[in-house]
Amino acid sequence: MSTEVMLNEFKEISQHPYRVLSQYKQEGKKVIGVLPYYAPVELVVAAGMVPMGIWGSNSKTISMAKEYCATFYCTIAQLALEMLLDGTLDQLDGIITPTICDTLRPMSQNIRVAMSEKLPCIFLAHPQNRKPSFGLQFTMDQYNHVKAELEKISGSAITDEALREAIKVMNRNRAARREFVKLAGEHPETISAVTRSAVLRAAWFMEPVAYAQKLEALNAQLSALPVQPWKGRKVVTSGIICDNPKLLQIFDDNKIAIAADDVAHESRAIRVDAAETGDPMMALAQQFADQDYDVLLYDEHSNQNRRADYVVDLVKKSGAQGLVLFMQQFCDPEEMEYPYLKKALDDAGIPHIKLGIDQQMRDFGQASTAIQAFADVL
Amino acid sequence: MSVFTLGIDIGSTASKCVMLADGHEIVSKSLVAVGAGTSGPQRAIAQVLENAGKTKEDMAFILATGYGRNSMLELADQQMSELSCHAKGASFLFPDVHTVVDIGGQDVKILQIENGVMTNFVMNDKCAAGTGRFLDVMARVLEVKVEELGALGAQSTKKVEISSTCTVFAESEVISQLAQDTDKRDIINGIHHSVASRVAGLAHRVGVRDQVVMTGGVAQNTGVVKALEEELGHIIYTSPLTQYNGALGAALFAYQKYQKEQKG
User: Fold this and answer.
1) Which residue of A has its CA nearest to B206?
2) What is the pLDDT of residues A305-333, one digit of tens each?
3) CATH number at residue A38
4) Which residue of B has its CA nearest to A326?
5) ipTM computed for the complex
6) In a domain, A127, yes or no
7) DSSP-assigned letters across all residues of A34-76
8) How many domains does chain A have?
9) pLDDT digit string (tens) for A182-218?
10) Residue A251 lies in a domain
11) Residue A270 lies in a domain
12) Cβ separation of A369 and B67 shorter than 8 Å?
């Protein structure tokens, strides 16, 4: 299969998750919706069900969800609720609602109130202190709760063996994505910013094994390509999500390639694997404990500005000339962390721009001006 | 024989053109007070050519900039962001410029300039506060012309604070002040300081260094310029060509592009 055909398949899936969901249901599969962030999808896979990521929508308009949300509320969360309320996600067999930020915590309750008669809503609270033994125990307790709820939906017990196998599947899936991110940065002439996003976005909708197989095949083809000199600029992207093709097209129009990313929807989600041996539930808890350098995760060494240093290092190692920060509107954690990131970038002499975005944006005129001017600065 | 280049700046509220001879002499300029998506751009182009007695074919290079720059792709040889063009234009008018404050119809940009080249910038978020649109809305509520705001604000004798940064809320605040019979001139002065305060906050993010030059239509409002001088603690330089600055920069870039093409 040619690279172009494979890329088009990823694009098709990325653009039409509803079709993918319907296909799973036609095949008699059970599908679990998974909201951001750090939900242990391994448990869903081990239960023999399909995990489907829900990161808002670039085409829906918030209407029904307004009844539940304050005015200044993250559009990703609101659009997830909107899709639950308007029937788009009616075919789901359940939904996992992590609560790691101040927006998702109340949203988990909104979803429970609005939807619990329609589908099981599985509450998941990650611990703030995730590294000490009591934190690990808390994570395991929470994951055991998720496991029990998933077992009710699937109708069968999740064995340790099945969970170990699921960990292997997801490790393989994450490894393929990490490799793709690296190869996309090396081959921007083949992988545009729009295409890169479509490939990574499809990971949230496809069955993990099928996705890993397809991406490994694509990676093999990309690896075989000679590295060509890139005549444009390279940047690192940062933020929660940037999967709007219209916005990313501006990057391509201005010959700005994405060398690497610090985006929650992309690389932040695939940095850490779980151990494939030992107690699998402990392996998943340890995996969460080992996550770092994320705006949402408590850092006991935060006074050292380690996250910002990590991002600066990412820019330097990737060969990028600058950073584009997608600031999701009304996201307090990202906004509050920004001054620290800015300081580290300024100190390192790395130019950056901050683009205010939300998922209801349809016009990107201002972003286009800023991105084009940024290319001039670089 | 002179080489003519044309810069077209299609903003959100006005269309401006500047024609240069040999990359340094302004031979014609035009301004139509409607911008992207209107008949303004075509009228501005027709005017600038007519003023100079030239045709499109006489132009060695045409460069479009501004919010509506992509609508000019059939006519223009190239398009560039208005930030780069404002930096270019301001550096031509004020060779020692280090900071450009450009307040346009729908956005605010602060540019950092080193040796005539833009090295950093910051733009406002998607919000009308601190922009020309903000002043348009306020002028309408106050029943005065926007071009009268500067002179009226200068007559203020009492400090009035317009504290809301949101245009909609600020409009309510102004209506409330009017209902309390507050002098319009004091309200206008308060509005100027409200704009200046917001723009200054943005400017400090990239740093402010002399010379500070203000461009864009709002630079014609002496009240905002004075209030911003107070907020920033720097003298602000403006030019009679302030509204044409983006188009001027575009025409300068057009000449550079022409020269580059000639060298092959």
Assistant:
1) A346
2) 899 999 999 999 999 999 999 999 899 99
3) 3.40.50.11890
4) B125
5) 0.78
6) yes
7) E-SS---HHHHHHTT-EEEE----SS----GGGGTS-SS--HH
8) 1
9) 999 999 999 999 999 999 999 999 999 999 999 999 9
10) no
11) no
12) yes
